[in-house]
C-alpha cells in the first residue's frame, strides 16, 4: 500500500529552528489543521508533544477533540465557541461573538489588512464590548499577515496596525491577554520576536515559501510519499500505456504499476509533461484514479521526498501537495 513516511528527526530539526526565533518552546503553537497539512493529525500531535510543544491550532472541534490529550491548550480557528476547559476559539465576526456560549474562552481575530477574516479595526471597540456583555473570557487577540512571504511594505504596515490593536485592548482594561500575529513566513524573517505566541504550520513541516533574499534557516521536509509495486509487464516497441494510450514504448521495456493515483490525492497533471519521481522515474502515460506506471521493477518507489519540488512541477505550492493527500494513506513515523 502507498504510505507516507514521517521523519521525526526532520520535524524536530525544524521545530529547533523556530524555537531559536521564539526563545522558548512554550511560545510555539503547532498548526495541525487539515490533517496536519496532510502529515497525519494524531501522529504529528504526538510528535509535537514529545518535543515539548504545549499549544496547538486546528480548524474545528473534531480535530481539537482528537488531539486534546497531547496539549495544554488548543485554539480552534473555525468553529462555534463553547465552554471547554482546554479549547479557545477564534472569533472572526461580530456574529461569532453572539453565537458563542457564555463563559467560553475566546481569541479575537482582528483584520489588520488581509481582508479575509477578522473584525474590522473600526469595529474593535464594539467587539470588545460585546465580548464583555456576553460574558466571554478574552484569552487572546490575533491577526494574520497577507504578505509575510513577500517583499511588500504591507507586512510592516500590518505590524503597526496590530500594535495599535494591542494598545486599544489594554486601554479597554483586558488583562492577561496573549497577542499573536506570526505564521511561518513572518517568524522565519523576524529578527526580534516579542509576542506571546507564533502559529507555525508549513515551516514545521519543512518548507519556506519565502524568496531567497530572506536569510531563512535551513528546513528539512518531514514527509516522503512512497508507493508499492502492483504488477510488472514487458512492453514491446509501439505498445501503449494507460487511458488514451498516451505513452508509447519506444523499445522493448519493463513497466510496473504502483498503487497511487489521483484518488489518493496525487495530482493527475498533464501526461505530455510527466512528473519525474524522486528517484528519477517519469510517470508513463496518464495517472489513473489508483495507479501510475513507471519504468522500473522496484518493489517500492519514492514519489517525492520534497513536496516543494513536486509543487513546482504542478504549478502550485507545497501546502497544496501535502494537504491533498488522502487521509486513508497510512502515515508511518520513523
Ligand atoms: C494556517 C494558519 C497559520 C499557519 O500558517 P503557515 O504559513 O502554515 O505557518 C497561522 N495562522 C492562521 C490563522 C492560519 O489559518
At the fourth CATH level, what is the homologous superfamily of the largest domain?
A: Alanine racemase
Question: Could you please say which CATH topology of the largest domain applies here?
Answer: TIM Barrel
- Main beta sheet: strand number and arrangement? 9 strands, parallel
Number of domains: 2
Q: What proportion of the residues form beta strands (DSSP E)?
A: 15-25%
List of distinct ligands in this structure: pyridoxal-5'-phosphate
Overall geometry comes to elongated
Structural class estimated from helices and strands: alpha/beta
The level of helicity is 25-40%
Number of helices: 10
CATH architecture of the largest domain: Alpha-Beta Barrel
Query: What is the string of helix and strand elements?
Result: EHEHHEHEEHEEHEHEHEEEEEEEHHE
The low-pLDDT segments are none
* Nearest-integer average pLDDT: 96
Briefly characterize the structure.
By secondary structure, the chain is an alpha/beta fold. The chain is built from 10 helices and 17 strands. Helix 7 links the parallel strand 8 (137-142) and strand 9.
What would you say this structure looks like, in words?
The radius of gyration is 23 Å and the shape is elongated. It contains ten helices and 17 strands. The strands form three sheets. Strands 2, 3, 4, 5, 6, 7, 8, 9 and 10 form a nine-stranded parallel sheet that branches. Strands 1, 11, 14, 15, 16 and 17 form a six-stranded mixed sheet that branches. The protein has two domains: 8-205, Alpha-Beta Barrel (TIM Barrel); 223-305, Lyase, Ornithine Decarboxylase, Chain A, domain 1, CATH 2.40.37.10. 28% of the residues lie in helices and 23% in strands. The model has no long low-confidence stretch (mean pLDDT 96). 42% of the residues are buried. The protein is α/β, with parallel strands linked by helices and 334 residues long. It has helices spanning 8-22, 33-37, 41-51, 61-67, 94-99, 124-133, 154-171, 184-189, 307-314, 318-323, and strands at 3-6, 28-31, 55-58, 73-76, 87-91, 105-111, 119-120, 137-142, 178-180, 198-200, 223-235, 240-241, 247-248, 253-258, 292-294, 300-304, 331-333. Pyridoxal-5'-phosphate (PLP) binds next to helix 8 and strand 10.
Amino acid at each position: 500500500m502507498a504510505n507516507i513516511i514521517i521523519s521525526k528527526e526532520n520535524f524536530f530539526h525544524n521545530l529547533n529552528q523556530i524555537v531559536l526565533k521564539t526563545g522558548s518552546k512554550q511560545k510555539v503553537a503547532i498548526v495541525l489543521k487539515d490533517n496536519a497539512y496532510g502529515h497525519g493529525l494524531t501522529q504529528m500531535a504526538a510528535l509535537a508533544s514529545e518535543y515539548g510543544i504545549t499549544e496547538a491550532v486546528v480548524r474545528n472541534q473534531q480535530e481539537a477533540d482528537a488531539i486534546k490529550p497531547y496539549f495544554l491548550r488548543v485554539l480552534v480557528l473555525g468553529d462555534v465557541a463553547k465552554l471547554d476547559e482546554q479549547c479557545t476559539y477564534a472569533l472572526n465576526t461580530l456574529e461569532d461573538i453572539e453565537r458563542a456560549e457564555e463563559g467560553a474562552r475566546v481569541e479575537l481575530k482582528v483584520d489588520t489588512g488581509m481582508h479575509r477574516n477578522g473584525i474590522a479595526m473600526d469595529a474593535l471597540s464594539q467587539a470588545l464590548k460585546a465580548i464583555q456583555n456576553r460574558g466571554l473570557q478574552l484569552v487572546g487577540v490575533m491577526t494574520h499577515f497577507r504578505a509575510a512571504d513577500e517583499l511588500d511594505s504591507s507586512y510592516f504596515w500590518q505590524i503597526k496596525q496590530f500594535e495599535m490593536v494591542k494598545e486599544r485592548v489594554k486601554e479597554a482594561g483586558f488583562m492577561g491577554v496573549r497577542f499573536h500575529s506570526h505564521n511561518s513566513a513572518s517568524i522565519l524573517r523576524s529578527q526580534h520576536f516579542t509576542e506571546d505566541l507564533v502559529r507555525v504550520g508549513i515551516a514545521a513541516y519543512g518548507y519556506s515559501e519565502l524568496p531567497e533574499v530572506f536569510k531563512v534557516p535551513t528546513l528539512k521536509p518531514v514527509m516522503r510519499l512512497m508507493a508499492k509495486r502492483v504488477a510488472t509487464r514487458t512492453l514491446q516497441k509501439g505498445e501503449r500505456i494507460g487511458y488514451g494510450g498516451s505513452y508509447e514504448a519506444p523499445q522493448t521495456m519493463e513497466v510496473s504499476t504502483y498503487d497511487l493515483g489521483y484518488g489518493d490525492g496525487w495530482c493527475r497533471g498533464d501526461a505530455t509533461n510527466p512528473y519525474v519521481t524522486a528517484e528519477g522515474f517519469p510517470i508513463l502515460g496518464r495517472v489513473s484514479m489508483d495507479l501510475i506506471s513507471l519504468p522500473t521493477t522496484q518493489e517500492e518507489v519514492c514519489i517525492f521526498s520534497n513536496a516543494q519540488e513536486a509543487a513546482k512541477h504542478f504549478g502550485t505550492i507545497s501546502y497544496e501537495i501535502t494537504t491533498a493527500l488522502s487521509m486513508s494513506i497510512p502515515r508511518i513515523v520513523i
